[in-house]
């Protein structure tokens, strides 16, 4: 059957479930296919290497809905200003090794879109940083939709930076946790941790670079 005989509505459904590379190949076959595949290709693009302001300006013509800050050499708020149609932004890098307080201020400058916050973007080094994170960043000041717990620290920093199961529970009461890197946690009572993880519906638990979905 000739795929060109199918109506646009059917083709859009097929393209929506196709691999991105397949959509790219299809987009090169005709102008019609280019127009039908452009959203599948460009709504959630990922880039290799870090791009600058000029690149961001060039891609504003595409229907981009989601971007990751670690792929660009500019401030988080600048990305939102340049690509005004964003529906979600992943904050997953630290702005020039900024302090926790500076990172907090930068996040609060983003009025929209909603944020997927990766904790590796925040330079949390002290116990007081967690309290500010819990009460201010997750307390309604910022538009955090999801949280990915993936911050890293040295063995010397572990005492202040690793979260206890109780801290994890406190965070989960304020925001949906999409993924947890288990090495971010201080595990002294495994039974307590399991009880808390059982409450986190849909959360992925990453153990030694292997990700499993919590199905409890």
Automatic annotation (TrEMBL):
Transmembrane segments: none annotated. It holds the Pfam family F-box. Residues 1-45 form the F-box domain. InterPro entries: F-box-like_dom_sf, F-box_dom. This is F-box domain-containing protein. It comes from Clytia hemisphaerica.
